[in-house]
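Morning!

This is the sequence you dropped in the shared folder:
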Amino acid sequence: MRICDLIRQKSPFISLEFFPPKDREAWPKFFGVVDKLKELNPLFASVTYGAGGGTQDNTLEIAKRIKSDHGIEPLTHLTSVGASRESLMQYVAELEEAGIENILALRGDPPKDVEDFDFNRQEFKHATDLVEFIRKHFKKMCVGVACYPEPHPESPSVSYDLAMSKHKIELGGEFMVTQLFFDNRVYFDFVDRMRAMGVTVPIIPGVLPIMNIRSAKFILGLCGASIPGTFLAQLEKANDEGGDDKVYEVGMAYAKAQAQELIDKGAPGVHLYTLNSSKACLELGNSLKL
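The structure's back. Tokens below.
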């Protein structure tokens, strides 16, 4: 079912994001996590290409299995990096054939193994090009887009970033999913700015429960989000005093308060970045009063 329709039927909600493992040997463990997180009754689950890049084939097969075997509506990530019109036509047609009706249209990250990669040499340079293409050729697809409450690291200005977010919706995006953030003020400010610019689609906030200092630094390095100084100091103190166990305790308490405040103040739901871990997401999700 189309996520844009599901959102109208149920709000607030929990949704999930999974990073498919590249090695098939890890798939049984991965799908075990998916099955455990069904307990949260997620509205949908997004399936990425994997942190730092991955394969389209894995994304498609895992999305199929999440839908058919686990009964969770998938949101497949689709990036413009390396895409051609022919490959996109074939891939999205395969999604439709599998009964998958939802795409998150993204520019994507540059390939790790390509030096001096230039997005301007790509057939599809931006996520906006991808949104426009899908809307033109696959009108039944529900298209979501990413947005950045804190400006994208490559944006020349805040106003440019806001204008590009709006443009994705003008071209056919039907909902937004935010990059993770740790200060709810930046989310609500972003929503206010979008509404003032005439953007009315749902804007779903992304929440990451911090489980240890190492994973936090890795994820933040990928996406460029910032951590409030007081929270970072709490995490570092917890790490010094009790290591990963204490950091998990502090990070989980923060994530629970953050997610509940988002819901209480009107967010349509919360999108949990699972890091393919059931423990933290179950604890966080089950704590929420929806």
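Headline: The chain has one domain: 3-287.

More detail when I'm at my desk.
O.
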